[in-house]
Amino acid sequence: MLFRQHWRDLVFLHWPADPFRVAGLLPAGTVPDLHQGRTYVGLVFFRMENLAFGRMPPLPYLGTFGEVNVRLYSRDSLGRRGVVFRSLDCDRLLPVLTARAGFGLPYQWSRISTRWFDNRLLYTTTRRGDGRSGARAWLDIEDTPVTPGPLEDFLTCRWGLHERLGGRTYYLPNAHPAWNFRACTLLDWEDGLIPAAGLPKPQGEPVSVLYSPGLPVRFGTPVRLPTD
Q: Phi and psi dihedrals of 164, rounded to 5?
């Protein structure tokens, strides 16, 4: 186990994306992963807690922060389905610098706010130094459990990520319990992060909106793709 963390209060918003446009944004050795002939771009908000390396204790303060990421869906020559991050906004500077230097991940230092108003959840983020790049999600959350369908499984049952580092493509595996989703209603949203990540601005409402209270996650050692 390379590191572990706990994800809290996750919000997933997804829109269809052009596979040909997506293909040019993926690491070498991977192709767009398709569900019924379509691929997707995701905007994901959450709180990360208790980040820890190996079996060491969680990092105090620096191991807890807000994150908003733009993600695509990939498949490699071994059939492994993964996530490709086009951007990851974080409100702690040191994790941003560490992830960029150590893993090649496109982290950005941002202001992120997570606020609850009874059963309503508001996420807002603004990238530092670029007030035009930000996002917002405003949801009504219920206690009713939701069983994911085939599309939701495709979007969330991802057991690793693909990333380019040092001229090579790597697969970083992860493991976590089954997702626990709750019924939710998207009341309002705004996004400037997806176009900032090189994709067209979303048109219309997301085709999938999900909320999860969270779960623990473990990441293993990166594995280089056999050919890229």
A: -95, 130
Which residues on neighbouring strands pair with residue 52, listed in sequence order? Answer: 4
d(CA 2, CA 114) in angstroms, rounded, equals: 28
d(CA 51, CA 149) in angstroms, rounded, equals 30
Taking CA atoms, 39 is separated from 23, 56, 104, in Å, by: 10, 38, 24
Residue 228: predicted pLDDT = 52
CB 75 within 8 A of CB 33: yes
CA distance 66 to 214: 13
Could you give the CA distance from residue 70 to residue 126 in angstroms, rounded to a whole number? 14
Helix (H, G, I), strand (E, B) or coil at 23: helix
Beta strands per DSSP E along 18-129 = 30-32, 39-53, 65-76, 81-90, 107-117, 120-127
Domains of the chain: 3-224 (2.40.400.10)
pLDDT in tens, 98-133: 889 888 899 999 999 999 999 999 999 999 987 778
pTM score, whole prediction: 0.95
pLDDT band at 61 (very low <50, low <70, confident <90, very high): confident
Tokens of 60: 């105090």
pLDDT tens digit sequence for 204-215:
999 999 999 999
